[in-house]
Amino acid sequence: MSDALEVVTESSLDTETLSENVFRRIQAAIVRGDIAPGSKISEPELARTYGISRGPLREAIHRLEGQRLLVRVPHVGARVVSLSHAELVELYEIRESLEGMACRLAAQRMTAEEVDELRRVLETHERDSAFQAGVGYYQQEGDFDFHYRIIQGARNSTLTQMLCGELYQLVRMYRIQFSTTPNRPRQAFTEHHRILDAIAERDGELAELLMRRHIGASKRNIEQHYQAATARGEQ
Known about the structure:
Layout: H1 15-32, H2 43-50, H3 54-66, E1 70-73, E2 77-80, H4 85-109, H5 112-127, H6 129-132, H7 146-153, H8 157-166, H9 168-178, H10 184-200, H11 204-231
Antiparallel strand pairs: 1-2
């Protein structure tokens, strides 16, 4: 586990708050890759790291399983998810369809103020130091996430629950993992701008097409990564 994880004491927080705190910290560590995919989750080690009892920790672990960041393996226990190539392609196929739909709806339903806010989000992304250096893309979540804002702007509660609830952190984990591919940050940023322009013009059909192409490009990036790893004998 990462030594950078901050220790909290059970006496300083009630059980519910402590569980939430630990949940958020472990979630962030998994999504960033500080706790590697496939790693076995050791409750005693985590309890020592955070200075807490098993009760709040188990509640946090249960919630992480609900987000599909942890999986329960028979006779082994909880492990950090590690999707196979085929499973990851399936995840991106789902994203192509559902986020394309969200984009079309957002073009119809986002207010002018929300479109302006989305443009400011991209301006924040462009100023990010990792993006300027060409080594990554701005990785904050929620309102600072271009995809999250569009899904919220679709105003479809079922779609929001699927994409910003159950699948959100799992998708973020893999977006972060593959965002450092050479040239991909600048390419993705350009694609985001084209999508935003289509939304601003209220062209839902074009917005959906561009989002599907955008996620399709990310899927091809992943497939190329796996092909290169296979050629090197790493898969």
